Amino acid sequence: MKPETYKAALFRGVGNVDVVDLPYPECGEDEAIVRNVLTGICGSDIFAFTKHGPESRIWIDEEFGHEAISEVVELGRNVTGLKVGDRVFVNQDKAFRDPRRVSATGGFSNYLRIPQCEVGYSLLPIDNDLPLRAAVLFEPFVISTRGVKGLTPRQGDGAVVFGAGIIGITSAVMLDWYGCEKVMVVDYSEYRLDNARRLGFETCNPSQEDLKKKAFAVFGKQRGYPAEKCGARLFVDCVGIPSIIDNFAMLAPPQAEISIVGVHKAPATLNFTEVAFNNWHIHGCGSGATEDLLPEILAMMRSGKYDLASLVTHEFPVDRIEDAIRLAANPNEAQKVCISFS
């Protein structure tokens, strides 16, 4: 039996989210209705809640959230390729034909109506038998996979990931999946570094150990300009602060590559003589349509090689979404915080 209403979280501005009852949507012939089951809280949700700004792409008085794993509850007669009960990912801007909604698909609402529903475009099928807490990391894996693929990782590479948040750890996973021999995750949160260690990665906490010495110990050292550098070829910035660029310059050997995935909100400096003499390669946060990255991310998840479900450390009901966002902003107490509609 269809409910008359459903719970929806509306963003009201800094520090303020309302949970309201909205009318249950009608399903047209070309449409689908999905029920969000588990939704991750993203850094953009935290930024909007704490500071807000157009760069968060989350809008006042509107539904938000975009890291949901959903299940199909209704299908219009013209929609093929899915059945009721199938798990799906709502493909952000494409699901609603509205790029404005890329970070605000309504993942913190219990139900969504998908107009002009096209399987593989609007809704992306997700294996029903994947652990839900692993599947909910699909969207963060899209971001990290874009950043990592731009580096063209090769078998035997060494890699350094700055940041042990969910994008940092998923980047480390994908670097390992693509064949890197050693991956080191750098962060100041022992809580999050413990999660990285449990997944088998080298770690460094610069507040407790010398980053340069640790990188030399893990990757070896080689000649560079103007001094010796570590042996890691690949670097991923998942933090977005100027000191990360300084650390890259300190460690990166000739032919090193860095992918900038973290959003820098303050200027960072880099000595272009060093760029020239070391022939460093600097990439943005990558490209690739979400639907095109789906097969390889699902292949990684299906492998069972990584205990991904353990990265979801907390679940909250939507009525406690403000508490959930506050916790998600604390790197010393949480890894991935989700809103559960189960």
Describe this protein's structure.
The chain has 342 residues and is of the alpha/beta class. It has 2 domains: 5-137 and 288-340, Alpha-Beta Complex (Quinone Oxidoreductase, Chain A, domain 1), CATH 3.90.180.10; 151-283, NAD(P)-binding Rossmann-like Domain (Rossmann fold), CATH 3.40.50. It is built from 11 helices and 18 strands. Strands 3, 5, 6, 7, 8, 17 and 18 form a 7-stranded mixed beta sheet that branches. A 6-stranded parallel beta sheet has the order 11-10-9-14-15-16, sandwiched between helices. Helix 4 (138-149) crosses helix 10 (290-303). The longest helix has 14 residues, at 290-303. It is elongated and about 70 Å long.
Write the layout of secondary structure elements.
Elements (H helix, E strand, L loop, with lengths): L4 E9 L2 E8 L8 E9 L2 H8 L11 E2 L3 E9 L11 E4 L1 H4 L15 E4 L8 E4 L5 H4 L2 H12 L8 E5 L3 H12 L4 E5 L3 H9 L3 E3 L6 H9 L1 E2 L6 E2 L3 E4 L4 H10 L5 E4 L11 H7 L2 E3 L6 H14 L8 E6 L3 H8 L7 E5 L2
Parallel strand pairs: 9-10, 9-14, 10-11, 14-15, 15-16, 17-18
Antiparallel strand pairs: 1-2, 1-4, 3-5, 3-7, 3-18, 5-6, 6-8, 12-13
